[in-house]
Design goal:
By secondary structure, this protein is of the alpha/beta class. About 35% of the residues lie in helices and about 20% in strands. The chain is built from 21 helices and 22 strands. The longest helix is centred in the first third of the chain and has 26 residues. The two termini are about 25 Å apart. The mean pLDDT is about 90.
């Protein structure tokens, strides 16, 4: 019933052959006056059809013997297709045809064209839909006054109109999905989605969690010790989180902010609130580089206050791991920072009060759930999820309606906007000279490549090749290499060298996309930028511009560019604001790809479009 048409064809009227506009689908009615199977230039069935106004040729390049027999001289046919100039004169190639009598009636509604799959023909699907239309229960589930006040038809009327529109129905509104019948179906879909989300939200609020009201001394000590002040947006987000933590039901809040907007310190202050009440905090990040970055930052802020932090990842040595596990289990470590290693069975939290999940979209639902199950029997920890990929407002309203949302929408003072430059690969020499100049002046640079080693399918510059060529080009510079397949210890060593300024140029794959914070790095080169997504380009660009000096991000691309790649590069070149980039990204890709929802099981909308149907949402 809800397998709705893509478009419609008008078979409710007959157009005289002589008056048919060229290049537009029309229906004509006539008699076959000549039929022949020709063999030059290839085997084809050619017929001549005549009506009162003129003649038309029809050609079939693929045909069966029974078709040739049916389309014989004297047969009356209705043809639907586009008339174009051909070798013999005006012609239709492979028109849709029906053998008819002199007075066969015309259809009373437009002909729907459905999405079909191989082996399923349009007429068979149409027949099934029409049978269902007669039998299905389409009675309304919404109050009449609600639909009437919005100018919507009844549900039955909407569905019937979409499958069998009257001949005078506005085609543009039907195909553009703006017709009242379409709007009714979209409204129902969005309402069902919102209701299910709110039921989920209500169910969660019925569960128990430890109440952790604000107001401890440690929080004030940390705020006084910080070398910077929080922005207004950080204060606002923190106030919302603090109020949630004081409740007796589990917080489920998404903290989102642009690259570098200061989400980590907000999470640290939330963690302290739990620690002050004697509860533990788990902070989980998707990569070791990001987890380690959090560990270093939190240690610097919280250990002077006497808060012990444990560090847990999959690549730790056995002794180090045992010590970390023991510190968490005894409660001696108030905060545990790590990767997915945090929710494995051997990790025991006696009093887990808060779980912080960074880059939450990188983790599956089950992984997030596993961490939640670490709390004491009968309670759930509060959960704070963070995302540095800004989520457009419509997406948040639609797919995150079961979460509370806090947004940090301003940057800390003193951060300089990054200048973005687009350069074709053919200007590589200029880029090399620019990197050398920056490093010689005492600054540091990133050179980012999309693949580790050559893939035959994608002839891309790889990190390994680039590393070798860069080392030869810059024998006087200290060059480091980081990629996903390096051993964790090697990776940590290179990153530490880069953070301390011992490595001047870091060649890396996109593992540095999140969390790396080196204020002295003011130049980034991204190879094959045309192959990367907008969120990834924006994240990478956010690794520079973290200090006070002017920073530049050079996006190198290879011609020829596809339309989509050109559109993406234009968006990233013209915009610094992550929320605007995300909005444009949503427009380009649609919500499924934006959220990676196809693999995470979020039901996608079939009919509503979040960009175009904002008013309905």
């Amino acid at each position: 019933m809800l397998h709705l048409p893509l478009r419609y064809e008008d078979e409710t009227r007959i157009t005289p052959i002589a008056k048919a506009p060229p290049g537009q689908p029309v229906q004509v009615h006539g008699e076959i006056v000549h039929a022949d199977i020709m063999f030059r230039p290839r085997r084809q069935l050619v017929c001549q059809v005549k009506d009162a106004s003129g003649l038309l040729f029809i050609r079939f390049l693929n045909f069966y013997p029974n078709q040739a027999a049916a389309l014989s001289v004297g047969a009356r046919v209705r043809l639907f297709g586009e008339i174009r100039p051909g070798f013999f004169g005006e012609e239709m190639v492979h028109p849709r045809y029906r053998l008819v009598g002199e007075d066969t009636p015309l259809p009373k509604s437009l002909t729907p064209v459905y999405p079909v799959t191989a082996g399923l023909a349009q007429p068979a699907l149409r027949a099934l839909v029409l049978r269902e239309l007669r039998e299905a229960d389409l009675s309304d589930t919404l109050p009449l006054e609600l639909t009437r006040s919005r100018g919507f038809p009844s549900f039955a009327q909407a569905v019937r109109t979409l499958h069998e529109p009257p001949p005078d129905a506005p085609l543009a509104a039907l195909e553009g999905r703006t017709h009242p019948a379409w709007r009714r179906v979209k409204f129902d879909e969005l309402l069902a989605q919102q209701l299910s989300m709110r039921l989920h939200y209500r169910e969660r609020r019925a569960r128990a969690a430890p109440a952790l009201p604000p107001g401890g001394a440690l929080t004030q000590k940390l705020l006084r010790a910080l070398p910077f002040s929080l922005t207004r947006a950080q204060h606002r987000a923190l106030a919302e989180i603090r109020a949630d933590l004081g409740q007796t039901h589990p917080m489920q809040r998404l903290l989102q902010g642009d690259v570098g907007s200061g989400k980590t310190i907000v999470a640290a202050l939330a963690a302290l609130q739990a620690v002050e009440h004697g509860y533990q905090v788990a902070i989980m990040a998707p990569t070791e580089i990001l987890a380690e970055q959090h560990y270093r930052k939190l240690s610097g802020w919280l250990e002077p206050l006497g808060v012990r932090i444990a560090w847990l990842t999959g690549s730790q040595g056995a002794r180090e791991r045992r010590a970390a596990l023991a510190a968490v289990e005894s409660g001696e470590a108030a905060i545990a920072v790590g990767t997915q290693a945090l929710f494995q069975e051997q990790v025991v939290f006696p009093r887990l009060g808060l779980a912080v999940i960074d880059e939450q979209h990188r983790f599956g639902v089950h992984q997030r759930l596993a961490l939640r199950m670490k709390a004491e029997q009968g309670t759930q920890p509060h959960q704070l999820m963070m995302s540095a990929t800004p989520i457009p407002r419509t997406l948040a309203m639609s797919y995150y309606a079961d979460l509370d949302l806090s947004v940090i929408d301003e940057q800390p003072p003193g951060r300089t906007p990054v200048v973005t430059k687009l350069l074709a690969d053919s200007r590589r020499d200029e880029v090399v000279a620019r990197v050398r100049d920056a490093c010689m002046q005492g600054r540091q640079a990133y050179w980012v490549c999309p693949l580790i080693e050559e893939s035959e399918a994608l002839q891309l510059k790889t990190a390994l090749d680039t590393y070798e060529s860069v080392r030869q080009t810059f024998p006087d510079l200290k060059v480091g290499l980081v990629h996903g397949r390096l051993a964790a210890a090697e990776k940590a060593q290179v990153m530490e060298g880069f953070q301390k300024g011992q490595v001047q140029l870091l060649v890396a794959t996109t593992v540095i996309e999140v969390g790396v914070d080196v204020p002295n790095a003011s130049l980034m080169v991204i190879e094959h930028a045309e192959r990367m997504g907008l969120a990834q380009l924006h994240q990478l660009r956010g690794r520079v511009g973290r200090g006070a000096q002017a920073s530049v991000c050079i996006l190198m691309y290879q011609n020829p560019l596809s339309e989509t790649a050109r559109a993406r590069l234009k968006i990233i070149y013209e915009n610094q604001d992550g929320f605007e980039i995300a909005r444009q990204d949503l427009r380009l890709r649609g919500p499924g790809e934006f959220l990676g929802a196809r693999q995470s099981g979020v039901p996608m909308l079939r009919f509503a479009d979040l960009e175009r149907d904002q008013d309905l949402l």
